[in-house]
Amino acid sequence: MEKTFELIRQWAKERSLYEKGNSHTQYVKFQEEAGELAKALLKKDRDEIIDSIGDIVVVLTNLAHMEGLSIEDCIVTAYLEIRNRKGNMMNGTFVKQERNTDHIISGTE
Question: Mean pLDDT, 10 residues at a time, over the chain (109 residues)?
């Protein structure tokens, strides 16, 4: 998978994305791709969902690079943050348990 991220960065470099683009325009592109994903999810268009998620990963890879980061490191950092996270599913979304309110949630004030 790491090779794929390198290929993405090479693709962007060959198109002068890093030289002529910036993180602000990449963020706008991210929002555009997120909108396409939302539309694909509503339509249940599997091919478009796959394409949109891939496009988002490409944009985030480039955004990270423009900020002097690697997408690989960002993913590892995020995983290390969530790996031991506790919480509950509420309305189809995982809601993390806040450490400072553990006693309130469990009712042991």
Answer: 93 97 96 98 98 98 98 96 88 82 48
